[in-house]
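Continuing the batch. This is chain 6 of the set; chains 1 through 5 are on the previous pages. Same settings as before, nothing changed between runs. Recording input and output for traceability.
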Amino acid sequence: MFLSHYASGFTKGYDVIELLYQQPSSVRHLAASVDAVSLAFLYNFYSGCRSYDVKKKYSYALRVLRQSFEAPDFSTSDSTLLSVMLLDLVEKFTSNVPQSTDSWMSHINGALALVRLRDSSSFEEYTSFRLSLRLSTNLLISCVAAGIPAPPALIKLRYNLEHFLDKDDPKWRESWLIIKYAQLRADMNKGFLANSEIVERAIDLEEDLQMEMRKMPKSWLYTTVELDQPNDLLFKQCFDRYPSHTITQTWNVTRSTRIFLNQIIQQRATQEAAVSVATTKIDSLAKDICSSAPQYTVFPKNESNHPVDKMMQSYTLVWPLYNAGLSASQVTGIRSWVIKHLRFICSQFTVHKAHDVAEILESGKDICPWSVYAMLGSYGLAA
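Output for chain 6:
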């Protein structure tokens, strides 16, 4: 299921697995890593999988990988990089706390070290480029979740990758701003900044992200569908239809980041006008997140017929919906709608963690969104 519905279907970031499987030299260590991540993937969805079995597969894959490093040129092979990245996915599927962070960052930092051994000309090859691009995304998200800045080696990797991709791609442009957000979070955690500087940086970054949303190309825009008949599964009797689930996810990541920045302004700004603007923006962004869900949960298109595909698409909505429900003003009614919709996702698509997140919201506990993100499997379930 991991290979057929995730690696080659839901997310294209690991579409090179089958290509590398064809290389005889990579079969043993790569097969062990695929076995481990496949079981971890099932563990994340199905209660029938035992954490003990995942740990056993993971330990074996790690042992095989370490033994294989004795081979010549093993450190610079694509299969080695992929194996390390798959073991990182095992950690993300099974770890619940990003701040406990040796295991959270160890494999992804190891993968970055392997990439640094390569010449940038290696990106001319498809598999090397695809793996390095996925690594740059995964490492950035790991840094944000752990509250640490993006390392200089990641910035260098991204500049090298820019020679081989479209720098105007909305997702790529947005990721540069996410690096600034990671730095802001890290500086706040260290206590280096005065309150006024935190607010100023949050306002500037939030406005930059808002501008990026306004610059989205036509191929990334969504349309609003209004229904004549009442439907309790819709917020305000309309929903937004997007070109793809990948594009939906990019929009919702941007919205979530803007919500976090506006919360900083809301909590720290001394001027009432700034607080009022931040509150209005949060409510609007939360509403847009709610409107993005029914396309996949209530009115899924026929081309995604397999239940696993529908389950994964609905799964990616759980975290942004949590952010919307947690942050929106009480008068909007968004939290109560989100709780009901998360339970609908659980019952309709057997996404049991949607129920867990609904319970968190209903309890009134103010749990950090990044802790919930880790609980959900982090970027392991990102498109």
